[in-house]
Amino acid sequence: MSTMRAIVYHGPGRKAWEEVPLPTVQADTDAVVKVDTVTICGTDLHILGGDVAAVTDGRVLGHEAVGTVTEVGPGVKNVRVGDRVLVSCITACGACRYCRAGSYGQCIGGGGWILGHRIDGTQAGFVRVPFADTSTYAVPDGVTDEEVLMLADIGPTGFEVGVLNGRVSPGDVVAVVGAGPVGLSAIMGAKLFSPAHVVAIDLADARLEAAKQFGADITLNPAREDVVAVVRDLTQGLGADVAIEAVGVAATFEQCAQLVRPGGRVANVGVHGGPATLHLEDLWIRNVTITTGLVDTYSTPTLLRLLATHQVDLARFVTHRFAMGEFIEAYDTFARAADTRALKVVVTA
């Protein structure tokens, strides 16, 4: 066998499930992983929408997988053929300035977000994983592939870029704008810090229902309610301590800036394909902190421990399951989440 099938990007709005060459070890630190379980990310939809110019025609998409190692380069020390591993969305060389500081998403040694972006990704039968020792994680005993798969991207993204960047603390009022998978991950992560209230805001009632299951105390639909007024009523007129943006469009970022209290924090998690207006004329005097970020995945080991000890429930993310040959149908289901009520779709070999 010299070929496999994969989801291949052919420009904005165009993808195909087609034959491509099997990946091989190209560097001493590479591993090749047979993809057992894979999913689709909102970022993949942004790519198909033309928002990520670095993705070029012919690229295999995907940056999340759980699989079995089939080949390793001679420089790989800790990963062995036959190991069951989580393939992280972020690849880390482990040696550059940023990796030494734990900022793996900014790796300048050949890593960062490269899978399904600058090199071929995981939505395929096999994937080549550079820097395998620092870019894969052993799957703990007693947990399913599906559960672990949720920690390839959405788990650490919501936790790091939303909750930790937003410095969620006990007693905080946390507003999460966007109750898709990353927003739900942020809600789940925020609950670990005992906030006073978690407020979920979304235009889709199905996602607001999901937000309640993930721990939101209050759910608001901007089509029916003045969400800024409700949050201010809840906080003696001040606003949220932390507002987490988990959509990636200008309107939701600007809404977060309205929701946050003086001295509060706006944590932008969403992938933006266009500009948003920053109302510094209002924000400068209110001591508002705004953070942005690509996930670094430094929290993945912690989240794996929480999963292994059943302190987080990741299985509830998965709403739809498909076989590899149904990948196009899986994309359609995920892209129409408002109609299909999809959170995460899982595709299994």
Automatic annotation (TrEMBL):
InterPro entries reported for this sequence: ADH-like_C, ADH-like_N, ADH_Zn_CS, GroES-like_sf, NAD(P)-bd_dom_sf
SUPFAM superfamilies the UniProt entry points to: GroES-like, NAD(P)-binding Rossmann-fold domains
Cofactor: Zn(2+)
Keyword Nucleotidyltransferase appears in the UniProt entry: no
Transmembrane segments: none
UniProt keywords, alphabetically: Metal-binding, Oxidoreductase, Zinc
Domain Alcohol dehydrogenase-like N-terminal: 28-133
Superkingdom of origin: Bacteria
Ranges of residues in domain Alcohol dehydrogenase-like C-terminal: 181-308
Pfam families linked to this entry: ADH_N (PF08240), ADH_zinc_N (PF00107)
Family assignment from sequence similarity: Belongs to the zinc-containing alcohol dehydrogenase family.
Protein name as catalogued: Zinc-dependent alcohol dehydrogenase family protein
Source organism per UniProt: Terrabacter aeriphilus
Taxonomic lineage of the native organism: Bacteria, Bacillati, Actinomycetota, Actinomycetes, Micrococcales
